[in-house]
What we know:
The first copy, chain A, is an alpha/beta fold. Chain A is about 40% helix and about 15% strand. Chain A has 16 helices and 11 strands.
Amino acid sequence: MDNETLAALSATEAARLIREGKLRSEELVQASLERCRAVDPQVQAWAFLDEDYALSQARAADAWKGEGRPIGALHGVPVGIKDIIDTADLPTEHGTVVHKGRTPSRDAAVVSMLRAAGAVIMGKTITTELATYAPGKTRNPHNPEHTPGGSSSGSAAAVAAGMVPLAVGTQTNGSVIRPAAYCGVYGFKPTYGLIPRHGILKQSPALDQVGVFARTIDDVALICEQVVGYHEGDSATRPRARIPFCAVAAEEPPITPMIGFIKGPAWERATDETKAALAELVDLLGDRGEEVELISTSADTLDWHRTIMESEIAANYVYEWEKGRRRLSKSLRGQIERGRKITAFDYQQALVRIPPLVESLAELLYTRYDALLTPAAAGTAPEGLESTGDPAFCTIWTLCGMPALNLPLMRGANGLPLGVQLVGPRDGDARLLRTARWLTAQAAAG
Amino acid sequence: MDNETLAALSATEAARLIREGKLRSEELVQASLERCRAVDPQVQAWAFLDEDYALSQARAADAWKGEGRPIGALHGVPVGIKDIIDTADLPTEHGTVVHKGRTPSRDAAVVSMLRAAGAVIMGKTITTELATYAPGKTRNPHNPEHTPGGSSSGSAAAVAAGMVPLAVGTQTNGSVIRPAAYCGVYGFKPTYGLIPRHGILKQSPALDQVGVFARTIDDVALICEQVVGYHEGDSATRPRARIPFCAVAAEEPPITPMIGFIKGPAWERATDETKAALAELVDLLGDRGEEVELISTSADTLDWHRTIMESEIAANYVYEWEKGRRRLSKSLRGQIERGRKITAFDYQQALVRIPPLVESLAELLYTRYDALLTPAAAGTAPEGLESTGDPAFCTIWTLCGMPALNLPLMRGANGLPLGVQLVGPRDGDARLLRTARWLTAQAAAG
């Protein structure tokens, strides 16, 4: 296979070829690096990429396999890691000059789990400033004049541009789904607490969630199966049975799914193109799709989310505020300043809204729908690099900690990807991937 | 046995006699009611006590046993329940006129667990106003001119006065340990999250903890073994293996315990009598006791605790504030007013102090001491009924969610009980009871 074909392989295919001895990790990583050399000067997805270091891991993986030792599900497959996730052997600078040169001595839990599965830690991907709004240098791989979205900008762009088949990101508002939608890849943010956050920048612990990027649903399932688990350093995680993501995602749904089309609290901000695309998709579903209205208070969810996020950012970015506030962006300074003024009363009042909302949405999903269909973003990636776009279409699902997946099903008139978002009930993660595969097949047939 | 002897039985003895068919629950409850008639006009421990209802449960327990059915560990034994803990068939008025006539339709988790163990729910015991500072009508059984302590005033007094062998209370600051010390009974507040709080008035979820009162350590172990467990309605609880409280509490310590005497952040408020009593006890321990100093910031724990408690009271007593603030005490209004002004920033900063403090205390306990010995209160129960005394000797242990036990080992010059507090590491609850038994034996021998 030539380098282009290798770099375009899915993680599932690449891992299979390596397992079967038909491909060496070194060849695969070499092809990925070649792809980086070709496209990254324009895309700029990487905060740190050390070719020798990536290749040395690949060679070690090949040697390990050559000795006949047992290998993990991602053996020899390169993965990109958002630069707010600690790596023991690469810098982790959180997208801010305040942390310039920061080199943690330990891997985050999710990185340890990926290494245990045999993955090659390819490099660190660009994040916005401290995973908030001020953009990094990354550009949209489909058009460099457009934003890739954020805050997991580099992870989405690296996967979209074929530089790695898999990447890890995080979402506190819309930081996985939005860049996935803008860049045209699958982006999956599982249920709150499923992937441990130990060793990841704490922004807003009530909202921070780890997610993944891939180019196929199988690949989403494959990486999720490796990184879900309990970690004593993350009180949101729970000991739980292993979730068979790959097996469930590959199944046919036992009965034809029913999809609830939900406009959500940000619908008025959607472009006409987005509104029409969703309508078309619902139309295609026939009697397996119908519109549902969210409860009347759903517009308030944007306020509750902001109250929680800004309160927690203020409390968690104390070091950054005290040591380097002049080097923070104006937008982040504003968030912290507002956050410092919020009362504990309003903060707690916002937090207690979450469980009843989760319950009412769970009821909706368990009684009638397999998943909810809603826009992933207002439209295609906006032009310009000074903003990473509007996360409002993700807010309520992040607030509720529900699993959400961007499906790169469509394109806008400008040729840029137009994603749709599929949302499931908490802990219905694997089934959501199964429903997503079914929906993708419907869309392809339609 | 005459009524006086019956009412003085420990729960362990009473349960054994009932199990062996040597005593009927009806006789036992009748004796308890007789004791109530004799002493409660003065003590006033009960918010609700319905003789017929208590006797009907006792008769049902006797009938059940008469049919040869399996019985629980507390079969036929009367238990008092603090009036902030919901009971399906008795009012639960939270110690405030704002909730006058409130009759929940469901039992709190802890009440369900007691019923499952066969206990007779004797009645509801007096709490201070909404489990905060304004006293209820209860008086100290040892001297009616002195406070019984609070907020679990009636539970402590009812057990001390021999009206029931067991009672349940709660502690958000010093509401189990302090009344137990003032009334001269064992009061045990297990590790945060051990006893489920579902169905109990929410005051300050980060601090609220359920505790028990008894006249022997065996009885503390017996009731704890029935009420520890996971409940999905209390996110602080965890699925866990059953803790063999009775077996562990009954064991001899495998090696002679080492006790750390710790003055704690409130030491300066202790009376000379308390200071001397503690010194005497430490002296008695010889080389099995030594003084340890708390970390220098421990004085701040009183502030952190107040910040958390007042913030959470403000957020949880919204109904009481909005519907009846004029009917709340001045002290509670003050707490709520202050709580509403605290920033989310200060609240979170206080919350994040807890885990490192817990860790440093755990380290101390695991490396050198079986338990920490410290005053339970400043001194004996203060004269007067307008205050329930100072909880400051309990604050740091409540904040850290560590198991704490009042040992009614001594008396003051005024003849009132003078308790000492024994504190263990989180999840070291059963071992703490074992150490307490050893310490009690040392004190008796010395």
